[in-house]
Design goal:
- The chain has 220 residues and is α/β, with parallel strands linked by helices.
- The chain has two domains: 3-23 and 94-214, Rossmann fold (3-Layer(aba) Sandwich); 25-90.
- Helices cover 40% and strands 17% of the residues.
- The protein has helices at residues 25-38, 46-52, 57-64, 73-87, 97-106, 119-128, 150-158, 174-183, 197-200; strands at 12-15, 22-23, 92-93, 110-118, 135-141, 167-171, 186-190, 206-208.
- The strands form two sheets. A six-stranded parallel beta sheet has the order 5-4-1-6-7-8, sandwiched between helices. It has a two-stranded antiparallel sheet with strand order 2-3.
Length: 220
């Protein structure tokens, strides 16, 4: 298959943010290990993180070693997010991310952002990286608990006039695939984010190892 055709039929791309466009897995691990250390619990490695991370994040916290009989999930999640928001601008974009957004824009593909991040910090990040111009809509969540993006996704696609087969979600987790299936749209998964390629392979969909594989031969 000539990968130059991967995006050819799509008029709308719904992008995930964390891990897909923003390279933040390292920061997530650093913060979670800081929280574990404060509680005298062992740290986790990048490999472990990419095996256990998922949505809803409460289950991931349990797999990382937190005990919610000691403290409520809500307070831990709040502590994590406050630290993440303070440091999120330390992260870079994924390699060639802005080039990909530019190419999609040049091809008149409408681009949207659907994230499990809170709305206001998400908007701050997009502005910081100078990416606001690329997105017709930016949708984050209203709380700290990152349960699901499906409801926002449904509201988003309800405003499109194009057929569902012309819409694709690009993300980096099994949950992104689940969101796409719930919306009745295609999904492309990027294996350089928060979950390993082995985990993503349970999804019957296209997987790219680099974002520039969306335009092979154009970017490298």
């Amino acid at each position: 298959m000539n990968n130059t055709t991967i995006l050819s039929k799509y008029t709308h791309i719904i992008w995930d943010w964390n891990g897909t466009l923003q390279n933040d897995a390292w920061l997530c691990i650093d913060i979670i290990n800081g929280l574990l250390s404060k509680r005298n619990k062992p740290s986790i490695s990048l490999q472990q993180y990419r095996k256990i991370f998922g949505f809803p994040v409460k289950k991931y916290y349990e797999l990382a070693g937190f005990d919610f009989s000691d403290e409520p999930f809500e307070s831990l999640a709040t502590e994590y997010i406050l630290e993440y928001d303070n440091r999120s601008l330390e992260c870079d974009l994924q390699p060639k991310a802005e080039d990909i957004l530019t190419l999609c824009s040049e091809k008149n593909i409408s681009q949207h952002l659907l994230s499990a991040s809170q709305q206001k910090p998400l908007e701050i990040n997009i502005t910081h990286y100078g990416l606001a111009e690329y997105f017709s809509q930016v949708l984050g969540l209203s709380d700290y608990y990152a349960e699901s993006k499906i409801e926002n996704g449904r509201n988003l696609v309800a405003g499109f006039e194009d057929p569902m087969e012309n819409i694709v979600l690009i993300g980096d987790t099994v949950h992104d695939y689940e969101v796409a299936k719930a919306l009745g749209i295609d999904c492309i998964l990027f294996s350089g984010g928060h979950q390993s390629k082995e985990r993503l392979e349970i999804c019957n969909t296209t997987i790219v190892e680099n974002l520039y594989d969306l335009f092979p031969g154009v970017l490298s």
